[in-house]
Each structure stands twice: as C-alpha cells, then as structure tokens.
Amino acid sequence: MTNSASVWPATATMPRYDAIAADRRTGVLVVGGGMVGLTTALELQLAGADVLLVEADRIGSRTSGHTTGKVTSQHGAIYAQLADRHGLEAARQYGMANQAGVERVASLIDQFGIDCEFTRAPAFVYATEGTDLRREAEVAAELGLPAHSADSAELGLPVKATEVVRFDNQVHLHPSRYLAGLAAAFTAAGGTIFEHTRVTEIEDGIEASTERGPIIRADHAVMATLLPIGTLGGYFARTRPQQSHGIALRLPVPAPAGMTISADGPTRSTRPWPGGGPNGLIIVGSGHEVGDQTDTDAAYRSLSDWAGSLWNERLEPDYRWSAHDYSTPDQLPYVGKAPGSPVLVATGMHKWGLSNGTVAAGILRDLILQRDNEFHLLYDAGRIGDAHSVATLVKDNLKVGKEFAAGHLRRLAGGGLDHVEVGQGGLYDLDGTTVGAYCDRDGRLHTVVPVCTHLGCPLRWNQGDATWDCNCHGSRFNPDGTVLDGPTTTPLATPDTAER
Fold first, then answer.
1. Where on the phi/psi map is residue 423: left (φ > 0), alpha (ψ -120 to 50), or beta?
2. Same domain, yes or no, for 353 and 463?
3. Where in this protein does the record put region Disordered (predicted)?
4. What does residue 416 show for φ and ψ, rounded to 5 degrees?
5. Cα 171–Cα 289–Cα 472 angle in degrees, nearest 5
C-alpha cells in the first residue's frame, strides 16, 4: 500500500524542540526551519552571531523535506537560456554559485559527520523529442562547469534520448537526515531552535509577533519561509507557485546510478533511492501551478505509469508526496534585503533549493556580517528585472486578478454535506452557502470557508494531497483549515455546520 507522505521525513529521526513560551531577545532571528533557514542559522552561529531560529511546524517538515534530494548545479537545460537572456557572465555566476553550493554541502557533511546517504554521482539532462542540447553542453562547459555531451547509454534509463548532457561529480543525499544534522550542529554551537512557533508579523524594529503570543526582538531578521509571509516585499506578486509530485518505488531491475532530468515535457526527474535497496528509484515531475489542478491523483498515476512503461511492469509506489516552490520571471532567486523593510529574504528557488538555498545562506550571512559576497548582485532581492520580466509579471498578475474574480463566481456546490463521502472533499452546500468540506478516513467531517486568508482568493480542493490550495499566491491549508504553507499565516474560517 502506498504511503501518502514524503519518503524523507518518514525515514529519518528528526530532533524535537519546544515551542516558544516567553518573549525573547536575540542578535539574529531566522524564521523557517528548512534548507535556507537552518544553513543560514548555522553559518551565522559559526561566525560568532547569537542566532534564534523558529519554525511554524517541525524543522524540515515542508518543502525542504519533500525535495528530490539532488544537490547539483545541473538545473535542466538552463545555461544557454541564462546566457541568451542575462549574458555569459551572469550565467557563469549562476553556475559557479550553485557549484559552490554543492561543495559547501559536502564540506558541512564532512565537518559535522552528518550521516545522510551522501553520494557523488553524475547528473544528466536529456532530450527525447529532438530538443537540441548541443549548445547547452557547449555553454555549460564554457562557463567552467563540469559538463560535456554524453551518450544515451550512460543514462541507465530505457529511453530513446537524442541528446544528453552530463555534469560530473554532483551529489544526492537524504535531505531530512541532512537537515537534522544541520540542526544538531547549530544547537551544539550555541544556537536556539523553537518549533511549533509561527511568526505572524514582523515590524520594523525588528519585532516579531508569534501565533502563541510571545514577542521576539532582534537586531536582524531572515525570512526563510519559502515565500515571505503576508505582503512583505511584494514577493507574492513577483513569483508564481509551482507544485511537483514525487514517488519512491522499487524497479524490477537495479536502478540507474546517476541522476536524470528530461528537457522535454512532461518533466521527469530521477535519482536512486538507497532506502529502497539496489532497485529503489525516486521519480519527480507532473508539475503545475499550485491550485491549477484538482485531480492530482492523476499526476501521481502518470509518474507510476511512466516507470511502468519503461520497465514493462505495473509498479506501485511505496511513497508518494508533493512539494511546491516559487519561480521568478527571470529564472534567478531573490536573496537579500526586502524592499521597504530591514528584513532579509530568500525565495524563488525554482525547485533547486538544496544548492540555491545553500548559496542564499552564504549571501544572507555575509549581508548580516557586512562582508562582500560575489553572488549578491546576481540574486539581488530588490531587482525589477528586464523588459521580459516585467511583461511576465504583468501577465501573471492579470491571471491572478482573473482567478480572484472568476473563481468566486463559479463556486458550484456538489450537493449538501450528506453527500460528502469518506476520503473525499470539495465544495458543498450548507443552507444555501458554499462551504469546503472533507470527510476523513475515520468519518469525521471537516468544514471550512474556502477563501484564502492571505488576500481573499478562492481555494480549490486538491484530492491527491487532501489540501485546500490557492492558485493566486500558493497558500495551502489542511482539511481542518490550519496553514500548511504561506504567504498566509491565518487559518481558514470555519462555518457553522449541522451535525453529520
């Protein structure tokens, strides 16, 4: 039977920390216990800063614990695009930044003896439908990356690849065990972690309010929460929320040893799964914008079906999960000081947060310590971007406006609450009012007002993950209305309901 959970937290022992119980004062407040937050906190603590990290749930519980687990500068067929759009020097900086991120992860694992299935392996991008990757290989090599054209046989996948680019000496690991190691190293160095401590607002000062009441005052603050909370910096309007789906399964044959990603759509990304034995494989793909699809069960099935078609066998995953990240209009993350605020941010990792997040942590550390960082300007959090970026932002925000208006108009309920079947959710009628409802496996009915508490956009039910998702800016909620992912920090309202 398939476990509907990420394979990484499910196979790791994560440390536990108390929730905040009283007001605190610290030198640096880091909000978010994922890759960016934990790495930034550790880097600053090692440099002599006084750091306190808070996490709304458990450390590594969201996107960082739901990644593919690849740490690589090979981000698909991206370098020729970056060179054409931003110039060779910017493309070189991006490649060198992420290659440095790979090696920084390796050095932290070595320094602190983190047991996280660290493995060096090649990373391949391949085309199957005539996409020309020759220039991608040439540009990547010209930028100084460990890249070259390769033969289809090197993939280890039974696909008919027409072009293949190989990056040597890249890394895959167990991300949850790596995050646990970072947390242990951080606290051993004198840092403090509070879990189940959601920051709801940060005022100039810096003064952070928490959901439980205590106030945290700091000299510096880092917002490492996937997307900054609320309307901070306007990043909700400068990014788009992207969701991917993943499965862990066992093949009938030994799994390919390298990491792969397709240049053609639909994207399929693979890597070995050591926990599944020699035949274990992770597959991630079937991407779409958050809230853009309701039948996400089909997204999971497409991954299993793809593997089954390659190895001519019906394959049932051991685990299945999803994660989401944010994309920027110019393909580069935002890292640095948020416009109009003293708060530092890191967002828009384009699903490559293990390497980009490590780069971001170095930039944030150096900004707080007033050091130079060679990648700061490339990742500048205040940039507007080129004309193409502005046009993309306009188009994206027009779509958000349309979703806001049309989404509220099309709220068609699917009968009364007595029609909600076990394991099913969606929009239902309650005395003439449309409500969101879900009946869990124990027969308990959960009802919410299906309107996002961020900026009021309509929510869509995600059947595959059993969540309420916002297509406008990517907030996601559990069936009972509690917040899974921001930018919102407020749970969904609950309607008055009759007993089931």
1. left
2. no
3. 481-500
4. -80, 175
5. 130
Residue 7 CA to residue 179 CA, distance in Å, equals: 14
Q: Do 392 and 353 share a domain, yes or no?
A: no
Q: Tell me the chain's radius of gyration from C-alpha atoms.
A: 22
Dihedral sign for Cα 453, 459, 462, 463, please.
positive
Q: Is 283 exposed, middle or buried (0-12, 13-18, 19+ CB in 10 A)?
A: buried
**pLDDT the model gives residue 54:** 98
The number of folded domains in the chain is: 2
d(C-alpha 259, C-alpha 107), whole Å: 21
The CB density around residue 388, as the number of other CB atoms within 10 Å, is 11
497 pLDDT band (50/70/90 cuts)? Answer: very low
The domain boundary residue, chosen from 385, 410, 430? 385
205 torsion bin: left (phi>0), alpha (psi -120 to 50), beta (else): left
Strand partners, 201: 209
C-alpha–C-alpha distance, residues 326 and 202, integer Å: 22
441 assigned to some structural domain: yes
- What DSSP element (H or E) covers 167? strand 163-172
Helix count (H) and strand count (E) of the chain? 9, 24
Quickly count: other Cβ atoms within 10 Å of residue 345's Cβ.
29
Of the pLDDT bands very low, low, confident and very high (cuts 50, 70, 90), residue 396 is low
Is 491 contained in some domain? yes
Q: Which domain holds residue 192?
A: 7-66+176-238+330-385
Whether the per-residue pLDDT at 402 is higher than 70: the answer is no
Instruction: Yes or no: say if 426 and 472 are a contact pair by the CB < 8 Å rule.
Output: no
**Are 56 and 196 contained in the same domain?**
yes
Cα–Cα distance, 204 to 270 (Å, whole number): 44
The yes-or-no verdict on residue 386 having pLDDT over 90 is no
In which residue are the tokens 């969606």 written?
Answer: 426
- Domain CATH code at residue 477: 2.102.10.10
CB–CB of 306/350 below 8 Å?
A: no
Q: Are residues 397 and 361 in the same domain?
A: no
Q: What is the token pair recorded at 154?
A: 């090197």
Residues 458 and 360 both lie in one domain: no
Residue 87 lies in a domain: no
- A 10 A CB-CB count for 346 gives 31
pLDDT at 407 over 60: no
Return d(Cα 200, Cα 55) in angstroms, integer.
Answer: 12
Tokens 């308990």 belong to residue: 444
* Same-domain pairing of 346 and 486: no
Residue at 252 is within a domain: no
CA distance 66 to 210: 25
Q: What is the pLDDT of residues 353-385, one digit of tens each?
A: 999 999 999 999 999 999 999 999 999 999 976
- Identify the pLDDT of residue 434: 86
Same domain, 351 and 392: no
Residue environment code for 239-257, b if the CB has 16+ CB neighbours within 10 A, otherwise e: bbbbbbbbbbbbbeeebbe
Q: Determine the pLDDT at residue 295.
A: 81
